[in-house]
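anyone seen this seq b4? input:
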Amino acid sequence: MTRQYLKERAGLSGQNTTPSVDVPGIVRDVIETIRRDGDKAVRKYSEKFDKWSPQSFKLSQSDIDAAIANCPKQTIDDIKEVQQNVRLFAEAQKASLKDFEVEIKPGVHLGQKNIPIDHVGAYIPGGRYPLLASAHMTILTAKVAGVKHVIGCTPPINGQIPNSTIAAMHLAGADEIFLLGGVQAVAAMAVGTESIQKVDFMAGPGNAFVAEGKRQLFGQIGIDLFAGPTEILVLADKTADPFTVATDLVSQAEHGPDTPAVLITTSPEVGRKTVDAVNRLLGSSDLSTAAIAKTSWEAFGEVIVVDSMDDLWQLANQYASEHVQVLTRNPRDALTKMTNYGALFLGEKTCVSYGDKVIGTNHVLPTRTTARYTGGLWVGKYLKTCTYQEVTSEQASGDLGRLCGRAARAENFEAHARSGDLRAAQYMKDNIEWIQKAKARL
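predicted toks r here
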């Protein structure tokens, strides 16, 4: 495959890449201190990291009502409309999951049930951007799945309650809302404190400390994904509009200074014009996030020209990007050509920002090529797929007993074999020596 780079990733080679803080070490200390000291430690870290120490971190119903009342009506209406989109898609996902039971042979019944997780924690970031949409994606999806109890945590913003985020969390169905941020929130939900119930599973994006906290706690609780920086990959042929390509690349580059924004195209002209358009957009005085987006584009942006559509699909699958936007003559070709992606956005009438904010599919998606082996957050992540089995026929139990005896002894599991032997003796009248001796000793 021939590749021509019209813009290469510069990376951070010109900067000091030595971590200024020991993120894993700090996170480890926070988790262990909260595990030991509970609410006292939560308050200490909230004061230290967020300058926030209210009488109670848990919001009362009157606090929630006040937050909703302080939101513009249009904001509340928009939250409800977006959440309806998310709900409809999540309900369709759940409907696709069926409990079943099958009789694989006479008297042998095998079944499967999808059981909701009991207790879930949802982390909704604040900081640079109050991510209302994360409330829809994590809390609402969990409630559609049937989760009994969902705790939502979000940090204060500049010492204030983020009213619109609280409204989104409440309307999504959170059973408890805590104004608590950072790794202290993640740790408190994961290990449990006097005032915060331990959860079984945690979902939601966050900064490096939040991500590291989830990584260290994985195994003690379940998590949605090991998240990295947001990614966008645009696939374009000669029919694509370079200004549209550029606008959509910049839309994701503003997420942070380390967002990969990549174009793979079969058209050198589209590639060159896209680079020019991105530079013009980032030089505009009316883009409030231009500085962040420019840093990301300069360090991690790429524009690659390939020879053919086959090469385009092949390279796209190697990237295994979180978001793949397809701006080609036949965008639905991606449904058969692509196998590695978090989510597809087909055609110029669609864009990644729709998926991030409003369209209804989940925006918690795999990054850093993990799309090669997993999809994103969905109703199924909140369900445990459990099996059961029942043998109702004496003949079937006896046959299985004989089979189990042979199969277990092939692996040197004698006690396993004897469980099978017992059924073979009981239902098939097999004369098994160890059973006779054992019964004689009783």
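The chain has three domains: 23-106+118-223, 229-376, 393-441. DSSP finds 17 helices and 14 strands in the chain. kinda curious what u guys think
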